[in-house]
Amino acid sequence: MGAKSMPESFVVAIDQGTTSTLAMVINHDGQVVASGQKEHRQYFPKPGWVEHDPLEIWQATREVVGVALAGANITRHNVVAVGIANQRETTVVWNRHTGQPVHNAIVWQDVRTEPLVRHLAEQGGLDRFQATTGLPLSPYFAGTKLAWILDSVSGARQAAERGDLLFGTIDCWLLWNLSGGVDGGVHLTDVTNASRTLFMDLHTLQWDQAILDTFGIPRSVLPEIKSSSEVFAHAASNSLLRGTPIAGILGDQQAATFGQTAFSAGEAKNTYGTGCFLVFNTGPEIVLSGNGLLTTVAYQLGGDQPVYALEGSVAVAGSLVQWLRDNLQLIDSAAQIEQLASSVPDNGGAYIVPAFSGLFAPYWRGDARGAIVGLTRFVNRGHLARAALEATAYQTCDVITAVEADAELTLTELKVDGGMVANGLLMQFQADLLDVPVVRPVVAETTALGAAYAAGLAVGHWDSLDDLRTHWSEGQRWVPQMADEQRGALQADWAKAVTKTYGWIDDPA
């Protein structure tokens, strides 16, 4: 009899995003074998407020894992590890005894904490915590959202002081539930997510007590901080994945960077999703931005030294297309945007600045709101569709200009990923504006891939970062075709359009 072949082994990646939850089964070659995906509801209780139901997200996670396993025709016995990537900054507070959230999750886009930000800034400026945390004061980050819940939900602060409540970003919420919830769930997060709270010291990778005191946050609600690649826990006995090590956690943008194998200083990627996020690897060096960027942890592998990054965060990218679909009903599906935009040769002089939640990097203007400018009777729906796509490319250019100033180097090409990179018109316009090639990998779902890689490394499924690099391959490349004069004129008009959004809100809240 011949030797019996070993069954193939896989990693399951959970990518919990702003609009949907995705589970993917990844093989050893870094290829997607099967997936499951489910959207969840978006709640907008007031202008500028955005919420999710944490219980709906947890239920969706369980469902899509089942769909992915069934699609791959495998069971937990074929799965060596689970990795989690998550929408960052989105904040959940729940009761450790009942597992019930005390409030809907407050989403990263939410701006309700602007009054708190202004109050804290009056005492020490928007950059008062930047040297410690790498972040400016902004409603974007999880810390302000946690403070709001403790101060605004009846009984929450008292329950927190008693030790009854737990806080976490979505990774933390999923890990706690996957590992048993009220029946032994672990309360842990990783350095990348912790670095988005406004509470973590970038140098020590621990919570900063002085900042917690400033915000009035009891230490007992916070998770313990771990690296991005180690065994956090094992899936609970009531899970389809029971006994499987949960061994990788990365915030979604760091996960995409990891999935793009941008492991070295000077490498960068841009993810085009609900928002748009450029991450530029600075290696072991903490580079504090003088140009409106964030300093963040890119990843940490077990006991190794952390790797840091500069990041430019754009709040609205794909969600502008959703807005055209859902609010204006200009299109029936997001996929139609490219065809409509292609019906005209340019934007007709119209610009959309989607400052729905204020402006993020590099402006950080909480008083800004969205604007459509340059309108004439000539402008039609095709021009508006094109202006919506172009807005993402312009915002990316603003961020890359800031990165080049901070890092004192010039980008030579841009690696891209995320849902919007299927849009060839947008990718070509991005290459034209940047005047550098734009490169999309074969596997565009790099967020899930990065979570899988972090988990697989922790359990020895992959040997090294060099091993992972061999799995990256170029799928498509767009090269610049625009004349310098046209590029300059367009960027000047965009810069003018951005200024028209300033000061719209006198008392942002």
Topology diagram in text:
Layout: E1 10-16, E2 20-26, E3 32-39, E4 51-52, H1 54-72, E5 79-86, E6 91-95, E7 105-106, H2 114-124, H3 130-133, H4 142-152, H5 156-161, E8 165-169, H6 170-178, E9 188-190, H7 191-194, E10 200-201, E11 206-207, H8 209-215, E12 224-226, E13 229-234, E14 245-251, H9 252-259, E15 268-272, E16 276-283, E17 294-299, E18 307-314, H10 318-326, H11 336-341, E19 351-353, E20 371-373, H12 381-407, E21 414-417, H13 424-434, E22 438-441, H14 446-458, H15 465-469, E23 474-478, H16 484-499
Parallel strand pairs: 1-5, 5-14, 9-12, 15-21, 21-22
Antiparallel strand pairs: 1-2, 2-3, 4-7, 6-8, 10-11, 13-14, 15-16, 16-18, 17-18, 19-20, 22-23
Helix pairs in contact: 9-14, 10-12, 12-13
Structural description of this entry:
This protein is α+β, with helices and mostly antiparallel strands. The protein is built from 16 helices and 23 strands. The chain has a domain at 10-260: ATPase, nucleotide binding domain (Nucleotidyltransferase, domain 5, 2-Layer Sandwich), CATH 3.30.420.40. The protein has helices at 54-72, 114-124, 130-133, 142-152, 156-161, 170-178, 191-194, 209-215, 252-259, 318-326, 336-341, 381-407, 424-434, 446-458, 465-469, 484-499; strands spanning 10-16, 20-26, 32-39, 51-52, 79-86, 91-95, 105-106, 165-169, 188-190, 200-201, 206-207, 224-226, 229-234, 245-251, 268-272, 276-283, 294-299, 307-314, 351-353, 371-373, 414-417, 438-441, 474-478. The chain starts with 9 loop residues before the first strand and ends in a 10-residue tail after the last helix.
